Amino acid sequence: MPKIAFILHPQALLTGLTMPVEMFRAGDELNRVRHRTGPRLRLTLATTHDREIGWQSILSVTPRCRLEELEGVDLVYLPPFWRRPTVDLPNALAAIRRLAAAGSLFSAMSTGAYLLAAAGLLDGRVATTHWTFLDDFAQRFPAVELKRQHLITRAGNLYCAGSLNATADLTAHFIERFYNADIARGVEAQFSPEIRRPATQQGWFDDTVGAQPDELMAEAQQWLRDHAGGPVDLAELADHIEISRRSLNRRFREATGHTPIRFLQQVRIDQASALLRNSNLGVAEIASLVGYQDAAHFATLYRRLAGQSPSRYRAAVRAKLFSPE
Questions:
Q1: Per-chain mean pLDDT for the chain
Q2: Is the pLDDT of residue 39 over 70?
Q3: What are the phi and psi torsion angles at 105 (to 5°)?
Q4: Would you say residue 281 has pLDDT above 80?
């Protein structure tokens, strides 16, 4: 049962905590409904203080535990700072270093990346932060490899998201990791179907990708993208990159976490979503354009991978379109 901790300190922007909490709770509930299982996640709130933390004089938050007491955590969320980041939180920095050394994943939201940097965990590694603080971050942490053009970065177990929207995409990525792709797509559809994209398409920079590259599988992925609009024969792909069909399936799964067919399906569903958003083509026409001659099969697959029917997705997107005139 994965354990996820959300860190609260007096300068925290609460939006950075409430959104991922609600997304994870939605994912857990959706998993219980679809698979008839009990709760899978343990969510906890840890603070830098023993007392309640007040916010804007209208509410207060009671901690579950002190940050120093956290252990056995799979994922830690670091919220953005309200206004200019201050990192004078020595107890928090020590706890962050301890949890990172134990293997916990970290998701630093926007200026929450300042805490990872102040803890010394990002020296010589990639990071990003909110665009208005890029210059300040670079000046204060010159040893960090700041990726100004990327909204999401990964440095081993340390993830940074440059905005709240990017945090939502990254949270969907973690939901897929702890559950599966179907649950993640269902949560995306529930929260904001018109803007969510896979985290790896959201200006993502992963400094672990080049650690043990499989160039043949990168070539295989590109081949599948290039041929997604027509019939795909995996034997032809295997011949193209000069390996056996069995080796193709094994190495592709090792490199991507998915089979070639599952990867192809997601490519096609992403292409179909773009057409549903940006064209007036019918569902059957879109199905044909992305490689499916059976519109009913396409609709079933779309519902499974995107969490809703093609028509419902289009309606949700179009409902948000308006003209200021």
A1: 83
A2: no
A3: -75, 150
A4: yes
- Give phi and psi for 8, each to the nearest 5: -120, 130
Nearest to 77 by CA among 57, 92, 62: 92
pLDDT tens track for 190-200 = 776 554 455 54
> How far apart (Å, rounded) are the C-alpha atoms in residues 295 and 271?
15
pLDDT at residue 52, as a whole number: 62
Within 10 Å of residue 29's Cβ, how many Cβ atoms?
A: 15
Residue 120 falls in which region: left (phi positive, over 0), alpha (psi -120 to 50) or beta: left
228-267 burial, b if ≥16 CB within 10 A, otherwise e?
beeebebeebbeeeebeeeebeebbeebbeeebeebbbbb
Query: CA–CA separation, 288 vs 172, rounded Å?
Result: 29
**Residues 229/299/36/23 CA torsion (nearest 10 deg):** 70
Distances (CA, A) of 232 to 229, 252, 268, 292: 9, 16, 12, 11
Helix 310-318 × helix 295-306 angle, to 10°? 60
CATH of domain 215-318: 1.10.10.60
Superfamily of domain 3-206: Class I glutamine amidotransferase (GATase) domain (3.40.50.880)
> Averaged over 37-65, what is the pLDDT?
70
* Residue 186 structure tokens: 């269902």
Among residues 153, 142, 76, 143, which one has the least CA distance to residue 107?
76
Q: How many CA atoms lie within 13 A of 141 on its CB side?
A: 27
Distance, CA of 255 to CA of 304 (rounded, Å): 23
DSSP character for 321?
-
Least confident among 40-44, 93-97, 224-228: 40-44
- Please check whether residue 220 is in contact with residue 253, taking contact to mean a CB–CB distance below 8 angstroms: no
Kind and range of the H or E element at 40?
A: none
Does 265 score more than 70 pLDDT? Answer: yes
Sorted by where each begins, the domain ranges of the chain are 3-206, 215-318
- How many Cβ atoms sit within 10 Å of the Cβ of residue 198? 17
